[in-house]
Structures are given as C-alpha cells and as structure tokens.
Design goal:
alpha+beta; 5-stranded antiparallel sheet; 3 helices; elongated; EC 3.1.2.-
Amino acid sequence: MTTEFHWPVRVYYEDTDAGGVVYHANYLRFMERARTEWLRSLGHEQDVLRAEGVIFIVRSAALEYIQPARFNDLLDVSVNIREYRGASVAIKQTIKNEKTGETLCEGNIRIACIDAETLRPRPIPKHLFSELSHVG
C-alpha cells in the first residue's frame, strides 16, 4: 500500500518577508513539519526514536520555487516516498495552495538515519524500515 501524506500549514505574518511573500527558507520548515507529522501518524515520535538511538537528519535538499505563497494562505504540504536505501529515504514533497490547487514549491529531500551517540550513519531499524516501505 502506497499513500501520499498531506499536512495543512497556514502562512503566518512571521513566515513572510518584506515583500509580503513566504521567505524562501520557510518552505523547508513547512516540509519538515509535514515529515514530522507523517512519522507521528505512523506512531513514531522523534524523541522516542532518539531515546532508542535513532536520529533522522536531512542529507540533501533541492527545492524549486514555482509560485509565491502569501500571508494567510492555507497550504497543503505532501510527503511522498520515492526511494528506500538501508540508511536513507528519498522523499518528494510538494507545497500547494489549498484554495487554488496551484503548486508553489517542490522539494526533493534525502533523509539519512544516524546513530544518536556517534552521529554516524546507521541502518534504519528493520521494524521501522518495514513500516516506512509500505507507506509514503
């Protein structure tokens, strides 16, 4: 079963720049929130994973800005898994304006699994890898 996860985000005044549009770095924050909520929806809290010795970090991020988001827009941020490896996951994320359906930003994010103590790469735990490979 493969599904796409969606998370709503409202644009607050603090998210915008002097021009009244969402500051470019905040799209990464919106995507991070959606990935965290996606993991939470699967029953995994990041603080619990950390206590178990597992941390997920962003290894790479490539974003394409297509249309600006503005103050008070309601956005839909999606999480769609593209590829699994032993210690990383490639994720396609899209931010759309919920009202118009227009795509505003697309991101290709690679998340790496690291050991909480050594901060070195480690395999994604088998139980988690199995779960993640059936959703996304």
